[in-house]
Amino acid sequence: MPSSSNSVSSSTINEKTEQHTRLSHDRPLTNKGPPETEANVLPETSDGPPDDVSDVEKGHAPTKPSFAGIDPSSFPDGGLQAWLAVSGAFCCLFCSFGWINFSIFGRTLPGYVADKFGRFNTMIATSFLSTILVLALWLPARGNVPYILFSAFYGFSSGAFVSLAPALVAQISDIRQIGVRTGSMFAIISVAALVGTPIGGALVSDEGGNYLHLQIFCGIMMLAGSVVFVASRWALVGTKPLVKV
Which residues partner with 70 through β-bridges? Predict the structure, then answer.
């Protein structure tokens, strides 16, 4: 009887040993650390800005494959949009004839509007407004009242492209290049501001005191500058009229 009891006990021990070994093989390996919860799991972070931020808000222009068949990256420092913005300011500065007007308001209020609706959008709106004032108010004007109104309204609208032009260049430039590019822009458009008034005086003298040719010249240059500002915006964000830029 004792031998039978010993054999039963040893067989029982062997079965329990085999069962424990089988369970240990089937059990998955786990860490001994605390369980992962929403509180102790850190979110993945990246060094760059979030993906839902637009390229313009990140401080650089989106990559455009081409603009009118031209690669914007092939242009020198600043890209195509920067040189178009400078060209627009160059054309508009031809028409700064030193009016005694409301330019002080035109150089301050549009800056506030530009922060709300976009600098390029505000520049385009005020430039086209100046074009309309020249061609629709100054050109057909007869009498003192239209001239006074034109001087006031044109001073307001023309003051915008004087103050917003450097903001356009700064918006599409790296912060380390703002000073160089802004200085280069003023060096270029200073030529237009310098020769614009003598050209206007020559046109008036050639017509014996008649301002017709000066008005036409001013309207054409303002229209050209406005169109170039539109092209600069197009090179920056494409055909998206409701984008704040």
Answer: 67
Which amino acid is residue 203, in one-letter code?
L
- Is residue 106 a contact partner of residue 159, using CB atoms and an 8 Å limit? yes
3-state secondary structure 20-36: HHHHHHHCCCCCCCCCC
pTM over 0.70? The answer is: no
Q: Are 127 and 88 in contact (CB under 8 A)?
A: yes
Q: What gap in Å lies between CA 192 and CA 204, rounded to an integer? A: 18
113: left (phi over 0), alpha (psi -120 to 50) or beta: alpha
Compute and round to an integer the Cα radius of gyration of the chain: 35
Residue 128: pLDDT band by 50, 70, 90 thresholds? Answer: very high
Of 149, 183, 216, 222, nearest in space to 77 by CA: 183
